[in-house]
Amino acid sequence: GEDVEQSLFLSVREGDSSVINCTYTDSSSTYLYWYKQEPGAGLQLLTYIFSNMDMKQDQRLTVLLNKKDKHLSLRIADTQTGDSAIYFCAEKGAGTALIFGKGTTLSVSS
Amino acid sequence: TGVTQSPTHLIKTRGQQVTLSCSPISGHRSVSWYQQTPGQGLQFLFEYFSETQRNKGNFPGRFSGRQFSNSRSEMNVSTLELGDSALYLCASSPFAGGNTGELFFGEGSRLTVL
After folding, report:
1. Nearest Cα to Cα of residue B19 among B74, B84, B68, B99
2. pLDDT of B29 over the 80 cut
3. Segment B28-56 mean pLDDT
4. A-proximal residues of B, 7-66, CB under 8 Å
5. CA–CA dist A33, A80 (Å, integer)
């Protein structure tokens, strides 16, 4: 079945790099995503990666995809207090729905 | 403007029914609904495109929805249960199935069932 797993919490200091990890199970997933949710807000797409790519970089964000291990990671360089939020990994399989992980709460201390 | 949902907060009692509304981004024809709870996370409810339900998640028949010709969507939950307390998120996309899967989310309707 389809399932997305991610660790629940990550705490870093301002200026450090953050790495949020995710594993998924549906090998037919065509796209994988990272969404961000700030308190009281909806989800915002941060970035996505197509399944035939290994890496995608977008400013401070780097996404790494290991298809063999079904592992996805999001690295945030120079983490700021404004990056504190919940980060969701999601996959898009054969259907139209996105399957989300339960989210990783990133806490950034100054 | 982005995706707008109403109401933003509401309180109901068990057994009542509720209707939530979603207006997608102008030009977007696909609307999806998700339920977000602390325990289960984000779970897909259904997706509508051009007034047709294209996909449905694993929820009981008490959960229903529809889409109008202007792409606005409503979802309805009948015979409310305590476990229906959640943040209901609507997301729109230009294409059915979201093409690349990019969804644009509203801020949600927070339902509390007492």
Report:
1. B74
2. yes
3. 92
4. 32, 34, 41-42, 44, 47, 54-55, 57
5. 21
